[in-house]
Amino acid sequence: MGNNTSIRESEDIPEGNGARFHEKIVPEEILYIIFSFVPARDLLRSVTYVCKYWHDLLTHFHFWFRKLEVERIALSDETKEKLLSLDDEKRALYILQGLATRYLPLNQNMIKNPCGADGLKHWHCRRNRKMIAVESEPVGSDPIPEEAKLPTQHCFVTSYQSSSRTQSFTLNERGLSPELMDLLRPKIYVCQWVSARWDCRSESELVIALCGAQETKRVKLTWSSDDEDVVGSKWYKMETTITDYPAGLSEITYSSFGKDLQYWAGFYGSKTTGSTLMLVF
After folding, report:
1. Which domain range does residue 78 map to?
2. Which pLDDT tens digit goes with each residue over 219-249?
3. How big is the CA angle at 122 (ends 160 and 217), to the nearest 5 degrees?
4. Are 81 and 173 part of one and the same domain?
5. What is the pTM assigned to this prediction?
6. What InterPro entries does the database record attribute to this sequence (predicted)?
7. Looking at residue 198, which CATH number applies to its domain?
8. Which one of 42, 139, 207, 235 has the largest count of C-beta atoms within 10 Å of its C-beta?
9. How far apart, in whole angstroms, are the C-alpha atoms of residue 19 and residue 21?
10. pLDDT tens digits for 17-28?
């Protein structure tokens, strides 16, 4: 990572070079430490343009590994190996900077309003909009467990006809081209928490549509309060990790369906919360 700047004499370094400060040479390692605590977006928008020397430091991908550590953005050993093995250093730099600025939607929940705290904002209710509502806390079910690590007790609740809520994501609009997805092949983690009322049977289905260059794959998870291992009113986690998705992935659609199985008027159907769609890299 280092060079000989830290041991060069001040007269060897031009006045406008960022290695000098009040006639003193600032060691490269000290600059790295200082830069690692500057917001990533500021580094890219302004700091890198101060001088050629600073630009050279900030366009070396080893610095961005350090920056991620300071930001407490953990990379697995497998991910580090994958980045270090890339032939295109600029591509590795783009990925690391995208992670540091949180521009690339990796290792973060892409779903907006996952619990319904903002009502149905951000959700497209394509089927029976009037058959889905939001409760500020579960009615007829246990409280959402601490294990879910959710900031609120809000949840979506369904009725006697099947209803759905959907969010779609065009990956290219979020900095992930189909080519980059093929290169990174992040794991796609999806989940939601689900429960039934103690007095009414219900069911839920989670459908993930993965649109690739040549095909669209659908992954379905189903849950019913009639399942043998389900205790009424308790909360359960529906989750899966998808790795075998189509090449050239360009769009992901997350859809949650639900209804009650006794056709009672009102909102007695399945309750869901904590919707999650995450590209894990």
Report:
1. 5-100
2. 999 999 999 889 889 999 999 999 999 999 9
3. 75
4. no
5. 0.80
6. F-box-assoc_dom, F-box-like_dom_sf, F-box_dom, F-box_only, Galactose-bd-like_sf
7. 2.60.120.260
8. 235
9. 7
10. 556 566 677 788
